Amino acid sequence: MSTVEPYDRSRLIDSKGRPVVGNVINSENVLPLLNHGYNKYNLEQEIKLVPPLSFDKILDAPVSMVANLNIQPGDDGFIFWFVTSSIVPLISACVAPIANMISIIGLAESWRADTSTGKIISDPADLRVLNILSLCFGLIGNISLFVNFRTTKMYIIAQTISIFSWIMACILLLIAVLLLAYREISDTQVATEGYWLSGFTIVFYFSCTVTMSLNCMGFIMGKYPPLLNLNKSERGLMIYTACLALWLVIGALVVKHLVVDISYGAGLYFCMVSVLTIGLGDILPRKDGAKAFILIFSLVGVILLGLVISMIRQVSHNTEQPVFLWHRMEVERKKVLKIIEKRGYTLTNEDAFKIMRKIDHKSKAEKEMYGLLVTLLVFCIFWLIGACVFHYIENWSYFESVYFCLLCLITIGYGDFAPETALGRVFFITWAISAVPLMTILISNMGDTLFGTSGVKQLILEIKYSIQSLLSTTTKSLSSDPIIHDLEAFQSSSSSGSQIKPDPGIDDVLDGTSQIYRVNHWKNSLSDFSDVGLAEKVKTHRKGLVNILEFLNQLKPLIEDTLDTPSMEYDHEQWSKLIRTLKKFEDIEFSPMTWLGDDSPLRLPLQEPNYFISRIFFRIESELLTLIKTSDQELEDLLKVGQQNGPKNGPENGPENGPENGLQSQEED
Prior knowledge:
Strand order of the largest sheet: 2-1-3
Structural class: mainly alpha
Keywords: Ion channel, Ion transport, Transport
Strand content: under 5%
Protein name: Outward-rectifier potassium channel Tok1p
Distance between the termini: 56 Å
Order of helices and strands: HHHHHEEHHEHHHHHHHHHHHHHHH
Number of helices: 22
Shape: elongated
Radius of gyration: 34 Å
């Protein structure tokens, strides 16, 4: 692993000129970006240059979230702790508002009803007090979580308050439920939706306690600093979820009074069926006022649900998948490096580049396939287990339950089957609010896998890589791995007998920053401003302008690529050409470890057009600054020459007085 150079990284600035904050400036994950260009210059020079693009525009992954961890992609346990630091808090952010929602409805509705008449029986005062206290603690825990999401300065305090509040809410509500179950409910009474909603609330509060305790454990073990490892979109997910939960509570309370012979729990069930666009038809608004309210409620509810689903999908595509891909690439790269070192393989530069590309493509294929398989597995679990629960609760056949659940998942809902028992409707509320959005995400992921890249051809490639990877894992044979197979093929076909040289570092290949501002200082003598000297200076300036023009020509197709296909991948010839343009040398000898080593930019999930745009933009700016600095030095030398020769030459000397007159006119300008 590369060592971090002892630079004062507080000098780094982003594309808006603001200091780069957070652990990203101290992370080894981004060393290939810190070791050259704007970042290296700003670490070394007094005058700072503002880069055209920030880290998150160059990397196709949330670099700040990865940098917050004290372990690197490719290390054992990285995925677990990344999920614990970022995804686990999101689970609590989605579950906690739902828990508060059903807790409110559970408090609003009595927990018992007469079996023969269906008349509601009031709850004992002590149970209602316990229920109220539980709701208060649950709300405090949710508010503390919201504060923790909005600011990173109160992590320890907010975590303690949230966990303690949810534990108290669980205990108080559990006592109330057990007391009613063993002391109050008789053979002539039946539990209502409110009772079962309170039971599910206990499960949700307990889930939030476990998830946030797990997140806190990672901080205690030193895996990440005291913060919730979230980005802006993830922080917004809790707001949309809370808004949706509040809107469902309002809908349930209003529907209870607009629809005849309906309870608060049934009202929440009706609102959930409406928002999820299932429309079972077992509860219908008859009055005009109820119909008018449902129109407004359903429209706003569908919009809020769409925002929640959109945020979940955005988190999946922009956070989880890129980080999992990054980790998988690092695992494969380290495995290849160990094999090269162990077997003493010799590779050409092009072969090393192709191996790195193979690692990238294999990792992407496996990520897409595994992601699709996991989503299908979770979907089947929701579908089949949900059907099993409805089978026993509603006394349907298992086939009828499977039929009902699938129609609800794809939001058809013919209405020939609908839950009628209190427990069945409560289970439907908690099951459908998770299962139906999951179905939407599944369809979206399948569309991305099949049509987002190369369609069926890409799918076949992913299946091929998955089978080869599985075969390699089950047989424990490296020869089954396609990357190792190519590595052995490159080794057997290589005609060079030279050994792999130590990695010179990608910054030695790409950069040359220390030479950018090395300006030739001319002697303060009149001979420097003779016709020959002036011609040389003009040639030097012209060469710098030609370099800038060449950089601009290289920049044009890159800008088009980043607008059309920011995930564009360049081949070895294109990379070599662009690097030679940056370095301004015709022939560069690369080491194979330049592409496979720790300083290789290909080990990062790069947006390659943006990467080269930033690099070329830096070269243009550097050349311009070099020309300006050279011109300033020449002007200073010319002034000195004019001051030395001016008194010796009178007006009658004619041309010899030219430089002084020229300088005077420049000073007047």
